[in-house]
Design goal:
Blueprint (H helix, E strand, L loop, with lengths): L1 E5 L31 H18 L9 H13 L8 E4 L5 H9 L4 E5 L2 H13 L5 E5 L12 E7 L1 H6 L5 H15 E10 L5 H8 L4
Parallel strand pairs: 1-6, 2-3, 2-5, 3-4, 5-6
Length: 210
């Protein structure tokens, strides 16, 4: 596994739980937060879906537009083929998928465990007139067998949210690493953007799945 780890802040970091260096109740260094629960994100995307249907507003770009551009520039610099298979883990409103498709990538898939997120991203993709994007309701911690062999896996905040889950966050992080090892091609690249982890911490966290 090749990791491109990006720590630091971005547009999507507003409201994210801060690292508790003194330790959390779970001894994990993070204070549990509603941001780590499925119920929170179901409610978020239900609201965003309704807003899109009423006003055409696509909603927030997680970590901001520059973070998407930075990822695409990295892929361009690495000369990633436009037909390389790309998986967006926790795709949300699917805006990153739209940007990838506009850039020319033709084999892209977005997954999210929130049905409302997938419905929203599907509506946005349809509005953009794009047809080469696959979407699937999928919990990355409990994957179906059909997802595997991706050349690029992208995470913009999903691992952050899992790290804040009030229920067994450490075990869920370990399961995330196992799931990533399953879906990512052995010579593929994992691109992660985070506002709760430093680059060094991310490299250490994912080293067991290398």
């Amino acid at each position: 596994m090749n990791s491109g780890a990006g720590g630091g802040s971005g547009g999507g970091c507003a409201g994210a739980a801060a690292r508790s260096r003194g330790g959390s109740p779970g001894g994990d260094g993070f204070a549990p937060s509603a941001l780590g629960t499925r119920e929170h994100w179901d409610a978020v995307y239900e609201r965003e879906l309704q807003t899109f249907q009423e006003y055409g507003d696509t909603g927030e770009i997680w970590f901001g537009e520059e973070s998407m551009n930075r990822l695409i520039r990295w892929m361009q610099k690495r000369e990633i083929p436009l037909d390389a298979s790309v998986l967006d883990i926790g795709t949300g409103n699917g805006v990153f998928l739209v940007e990838l498709a506009k850039f020319g990538f033709s084999n892209i898939t977005g997954i999210d465990y929130s049905p409302s997120a997938i419905q929203l991203s599907g509506s946005i993709i349809e509005k953009e007139g794009l047809s080469n994007i696959k979407l699937k309701v999928e919990d990355f911690l409990h994957l179906s067998t059909e997802l595997s062999g991706f050349h690029i896996c992208v995470d913009k905040g999903t691992f952050d949210a899992i790290s804040l889950n009030p229920d067994s966050a450490i075990e869920k992080r370990k399961q995330y690493v196992k799931s990533l090892s399953r879906v990512l091609n052995g010579k593929g690249f994992f691109l992660i953007t985070s506002c709760n982890w430093t680059k060094e911490e991310l490299l250490n966290e994912f080293s067991e799945g290398s």
